[in-house]
Write a structure and sequence with these properties.
By secondary structure, this protein is of the alpha+beta class. It is about 15% helix and about 50% strand. The protein is built from one helix and nine strands, in the order H-E-E-E-E-E-E-E-E-E. A five-stranded mixed β-sheet has the order 3-9-8-5-6, with no helix packed on it. A four-stranded mixed β-sheet has the order 2-1-4-7, with no helix packed on it. The chain is globular. The structure holds copper (II) ion. Copper (II) ion (CU) binds near residues 61, 102 and 110. The site of copper (II) ion (CU) has 5 residues, from loops.
């Protein structure tokens, strides 16, 4: 009887371990200032991702991401100087363009590419 109880406890205890084995979200930090975007890494793993926009500049900035050939645009809304914004998304593999949508910031250099694989 006691052996059955122990086996049950072990089975329950193993469930969280199995869950923890699934990979954590990929993380990308995007640093913004006038007028550029710098990525913490050039590529990330496909699947769940957390993208963070840190505004080191003196103006407001935001961030849009779109996969080449894709139709969906992921967005982080306006982030004030010194602040951080983030989004969580499930990203497909591909080449993503990132840009700031405010005023002429993209044309002035606030764009970057990210490889998701
Ligand atoms: Cu901007």
């Amino acid at each position: 009887m006691r052996r059955v109880a122990i086996a049950t406890v072990l089975a329950v205890a193993l469930v969280p371990i199995a869950t923890a084995a699934s990979p954590p979200p990929a993380r990308l930090q995007v640093s913004a200032d006038e007028f550029r975007l710098a990525l913490s890494r050039a590529s990330i793993r496909k699947g769940p991702a957390i993208v963070e926009l840190v505004n080191y500049g003196e103006d407001d900035h935001d961030l849009a991401l779109r996969r080449s050939g894709g139709t969906r645009t992921y967005r982080i809304g306006v982030v004030e100087p010194g602040r951080t914004g983030s989004l969580e998304a499930r990203l497909l593999a591909g080449r993503f363009t990132l840009w700031c949508t405010l005023a002429d910031h993209r044309a002035r250099g606030m764009r970057a590419t990210l490889n998701v694989r």
